[in-house]
Amino acid sequence: MVLEALVLSVAGGYARVRVGGDVLLCQFRGRLRRSGILPGDRVVVSFEVPGQETVERVLPRGNVLKRPAIANVDQALVVFTASEPPLNLPLVDRITVLATHAGVGVILCLNKVDLIDPGEALRLGQVYQPSGFPFFATSALIGDGVEGLRPVLEGRVTVMAGQSGVGKSRLLNSLDPSLSLATGALSRKISRGKHITRRVELLQVQGGGIVADAPGFSRLDLEGMSPGELGDCYPEIRSLSAGCRFTGCHHQKEPGCAVKESIGSGISLERYSSYCDLFAEILEWEKRRYE
Ligand code: GDP
Ligand code: ZN
């Protein structure tokens, strides 16, 4: 008998896979050791010898994230805060660009809203409104807004992204207390100080899909991305650019630029300026490549 399964984690020549509602430890065919098998892979498992379930082959992948190494990621839940740690929209936009570039959907989650003025949460929602990215405001501390995430995660593979301390683990615990993930300063100190490379582990959230609580997007530079690709990673720029006078407009100093003309309506000033910063960075990468 063979069945399709989802790989949750891989270590020491074994894969933990989910088949239906069960989780099994499987060995895998030797050739897969070399060609690679990743968390998130859909695989075919054979059950010929009881107790020796074997991953026979990996089904074609929709996408692959490199760091963290996960296959078939549907979406990134980009968690950020406006206090503790302070607001860092350039970082949020950098992550959304990398996720979009990797073919991964973006969901934004402003966490720790208990620490900020409701007006500030509203303003941040407006900054992202033209992007069309789904936007959630939560407090993992008091539970506000957290339930809204569950249906968004359901039936999908989601990677948690965002800077350390924004509350990713606490959000997951709040969605499913049985996960019991370590939160707070102590766990971070241990994992940093001892240079433990955390293995990517896909977690099943009760009634809410599969989530990778991975260190996540540890490499954040844009090397290899072209200016045009950058614009395409801003959904509002991608749609506005159809109105630019020049095809291939970079929305910098060109006349008749529909993106620049739409600042404050079709694109927020914050988003346009992060685009310009990332654009400048890409030019730097390109210069370096040809030096
Ligand atoms: P991670 O590094 O992103 O996984 O962040 P953690 O989940 O470890 O949370 C970092 C710290 O922020 C912990 O002390 C949490 O208790 C705290 N925290 C998480 N969510 C909230 C929240 O919504 N409000 C407040 N006030 N604190 C929170
Ligand atoms: Zn333009």
Structural class: alpha/beta
Tell me, what's the shape?
globular
Largest sheet: 6 strands, mixed
Mean pLDDT: 90
Unreliable spans are 186-196
Cα end-to-end separation: 57 Å
**Series of H and E elements:** EEEHEEEEEHEHEHEHHEEHHHH
Helix proportion:
25-40%
What is the radius of gyration computed over CA atoms, rounded to a whole number of angstroms?
21 Å
Task: Let me know the number of strands.
Answer: 13
Specify the number of helices. Answer: 10
Fraction in beta strands? 15-25%
Bound molecules: guanosine-5'-diphosphate, zinc ion
The largest beta-sheet arranges its strands as 10-9-8-11-13-12
Question: How would you concisely characterize the structure shown here?
Answer:
With 291 residues, this protein is an alpha/beta fold. 31% of the residues lie in helices and 22% in strands.
How would you explain this protein's 3D organization?
The structure is a single chain. The chain is an alpha/beta fold and about 290 residues long. Helix 2 crosses helix 10. The strands form three sheets. A six-stranded mixed beta sheet has the order 10-9-8-11-13-12, covered by helices on one side. A five-stranded mixed β-barrel has the order 1-2-3-5-4. A two-stranded antiparallel ribbon has the order 6-7. The longest helix is centred in the last third of the chain and has 22 residues. The chain starts with a strand and ends with a helix. About 5% of the residues have low confidence. It is built from ten helices and 13 strands. The radius of gyration is 21 Å and the shape is globular. The site of zinc ion has 8 residues, from helix 9.
